[in-house]
């Protein structure tokens, strides 16, 4: 069932060992570019990230700059060309120090520790034209300074105290418990706290420092009604520490602030608060100080996903999902007119502007993992030498299906290099407000293509990049248009000559897992179903997830009742593989525990009297919403592959020996 071994995707060890590029920083004059590359450690148990320098001209090979045993991350350039980064570097006196800020001088030499704080440094931003550095760092709630923070942390550690007293929401996020500390912003010179007593306002906040280093603008997350969180924008003067709310919209969250090069304006995104009947909408806004903010490009039916400015301030540079891609666009800050800059099949991220209209970015697609490029003012794209891009075991094509209401539904279809039609594997993306438009290391179709499967990646209703109406089609009705769109896409794929329509399976994670569960209870057309980190009982999920207030805006009791997969468990006649991590707080483990019990006791394929069942449950006590530990990632794919082979090929595949 597999094609001839010839790529890293035919060997899980080779795949896991592929280097992974992320992050990008550009010096103020555009003459230097750095990125980070993650590689497996010697034990092959975790990835270690280092800072590497790229050649902006695209001629010279990449050059490694750091070699810390624990790795380095988040590089930025100072105004004079030094590289700052965050790193954990153990010493003889402290084998588990907090993450500190380090400086690598432009003139060369060894990196030196710039700033260490008791709770570690989590983010760093610099001014383009001034010697100003601002860091984000956690301080304990009752600490009245850094020395007091250190004393209290030592007190908790020595007494093995993990308890946290909460007075607000949320209490945990993605995979970690919140508190008892809160994020602060500090001027690295000193250091000096710029945000005393912020509460949880800076949790997951984005901030930008003005080019002259006089002020910063940050998103500020205030408590709202019914345990919600509201995103506003706050300006902080770096000399006086004066804090001023500059933008506040009671009907929307304001995020991703980017200050104009001359310091006269700030661009940002505005996401409207959804209702049970109306999906959110994200637009680009611009605020000129002392004036009300205005929305830009209101006729442009796309959601901006990142925001920055051209160096000369002539345009706002944004990215947005579009038809299974993620191009770069330029938006006029006065007229709001939108011009597409890139015109290829890639999705761009980490966009950094440079003098002369040059843009540097990372780009990826299902043909290539993230890699750095330079985009010239004429639109020409130059790939910068970095890691070698892996060869693929198949080909990628697009298919367009027609939904029940006549709406086009597009998909990526990855096909193996074989002469015979290949079994179809339907992969459903998470989100649900997302798109299959960028490389995924965790959900990588080529590993399955290498085993002889054709992999279908559709963008059904609720997917981004197709306009507001396309999202609205599935809002509050997850079991309707998203489901029928997936079946329409599957029908279109089965009509392709490279697909064997007699052998099919479906799988998905998060919202994709929800859809896999819904499919299981509504059709028997698939031979096997894999559901990862999935929503099962919506009434249970809504109040236990880490962002309950957001889901409550759509998930009314009526919506949860009508669209909950658990109500159809007795109709499930397809073998299911359930996968979940115990540290998943976005979709709590209770969803999988209830799904597993109800599959065994109420489904159309219940467990036999001796306890045997065609269903399986792969449980990761130490993993979160994803599966990050490299050996666990291998086990994930091995178990999924064995489960699918058993039900699509009749193979008696055994689980990995490390599972005992």
The main pleated sheet reads as: 8 strands, mixed
Please report the number of helical segments.
11
Strand order of the largest sheet: 31-32-34-33-35-36-37-38
The fraction of residues assigned to DSSP E strands is: 25-35%
- Low-confidence segments, given as residue ranges, are none
Mind telling me the C-alpha Rg? 25 Å
What fraction, in percent, of the residue positions are helical? 10-25%
Distance between the termini: 26 Å
Number of strands: 38
Structural class by SSE content: alpha+beta
Average pLDDT confidence is 96
Shape label: globular
Polypeptide structure, described:
With 660 residues, the protein is of the alpha+beta class. 16% of the residues lie in helices and 34% in strands. The strands form 9 sheets. An 8-stranded mixed sheet has the order 31-32-34-33-35-36-37-38, with helices on both faces. Strands 1-2-3-4 form a 4-stranded antiparallel sheet, with no helix packed on it. The longest helix has 19 residues, at 630-648. The protein is globular, with a radius of gyration of 25 Å. The model has no long low-confidence stretch (mean pLDDT 96).
């Amino acid at each position: 069932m597999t094609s001839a071994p010839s790529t890293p995707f035919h060997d899980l060890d080779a795949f896991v060992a592929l280097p992974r590029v992320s992050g990008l920083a550009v010096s103020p004059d555009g003459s230097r570019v750095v990125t980070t590359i993650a590689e497996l450690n010697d034990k092959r148990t975790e990835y270690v990230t280092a800072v590497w320098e790229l050649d902006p001209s695209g001629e010279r090979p990449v050059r490694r700059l750091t070699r810390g045993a624990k790795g380095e991350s988040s590089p930025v350039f100072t105004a004079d060309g030094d590289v700052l980064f965050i790193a954990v570097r153990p010493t003889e006196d402290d084998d588990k120090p907090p993450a500190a800020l380090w400086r690598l001088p432009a003139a060369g030499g060894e990196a030196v520790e710039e700033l260490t704080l008791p709770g570690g440094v989590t983010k760093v931003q610099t001014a383009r034209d001034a010697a100003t550095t601002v860091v984000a760092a956690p301080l304990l709630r009752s600490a009245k300074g850094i020395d007091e923070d250190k004393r209290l942390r030592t007190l908790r550690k020595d007494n093995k105290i993990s308890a946290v007293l909460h007075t607000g929401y949320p209490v945990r996020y993605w995979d970690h418990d919140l508190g008892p500390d809160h994020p602060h912003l500090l001027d690295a010179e000193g250091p000096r706290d710029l945000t005393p007593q912020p509460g949880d306002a800076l949790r997951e906040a984005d901030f930008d420092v003005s080019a002259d280093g006089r002020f910063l603008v940050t998103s500020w997350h205030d408590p709202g009604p019914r345990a919600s969180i509201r995103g506003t924008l706050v300006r902080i003067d770096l000399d006086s520490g004066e804090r001023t709310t500059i933008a506040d919209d009671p009907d929307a969250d304001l995020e991703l602030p980017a200050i104009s090069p001359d310091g006269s304006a700030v661009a940002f995104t505005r996401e409207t608060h959804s209702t049970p009947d109306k999906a959110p909408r994200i637009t680009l806004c611009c605020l000129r100080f002392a004036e009300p903010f205005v929305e830009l490009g209101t006729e442009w039916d796309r959601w901006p996903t990142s925001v920055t400015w051209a160096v000369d301030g002539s345009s706002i540079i944004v990215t947005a999902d579009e038809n299974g891609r993620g191009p770069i666009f330029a938006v006029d800050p006065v007229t709001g007119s939108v011009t597409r800059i890139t015109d290829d099949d890639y999705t761009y991220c980490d966009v950094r502007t440079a003098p002369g209209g040059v843009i540097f970015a990372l780009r990826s697609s299902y043909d290539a993992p993230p890699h750095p490029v330079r985009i010239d003012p004429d639109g020409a794209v130059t790939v910068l030498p970095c890691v070698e891009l892996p060869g693929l075991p198949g080909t990628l094509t697009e298919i367009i299906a027609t939904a029940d209401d006549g709406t086009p539904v597009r998909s990526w279809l990855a096909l193996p290099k074989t002469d015979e039609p290949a079994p179809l594997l339907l992969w459903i993306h998470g989100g649900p407000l997302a798109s299959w438009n960028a490389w995924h290391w965790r959900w990588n179709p080529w590993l399955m293509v290498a085993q002889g499967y054709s992999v279908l990646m559709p963008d059904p209703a609720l997917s981004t990049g197709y306009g507001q109406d396309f999202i609205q089609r599935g809002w509050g009705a997850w079991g309707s248009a998203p489901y029928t769109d997936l079946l329409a896409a599957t029908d279109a794929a089965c009509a392709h000559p490279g697909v064997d329509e007699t052998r099919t399976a479906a799988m998905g994670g998060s919202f994709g897992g929800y859809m896999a569960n819904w499919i299981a209870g509504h059709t028997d057309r698939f031979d096997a179903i894999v559901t990862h980190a999935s929503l099962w009982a919506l009434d249970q999920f809504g109040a236990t997830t880490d962002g309950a207030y957001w889901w409550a805006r759509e998930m009314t009791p009526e919506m949860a009742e009508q669209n909950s997969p658990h109500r159809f468990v007795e109709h499930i006649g397809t073998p299911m593989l359930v996968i979940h991590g115990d540290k998943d707080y976005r979709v709590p483990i209770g969803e999988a525990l209830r799904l597993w019990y109800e599959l065994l006791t109420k489904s159309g394929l219940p467990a036999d009297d001796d306890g045997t069942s065609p269903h399986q449950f792969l449980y990761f006590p130490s993993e979160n919403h994803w599966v990050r530990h490299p050996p666990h990632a291998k086990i994930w794919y091995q178990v999924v592959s064995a489960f699918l082979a058993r039900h699509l090929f009749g193979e008696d595949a055994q689980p990995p020996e490390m599972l005992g």
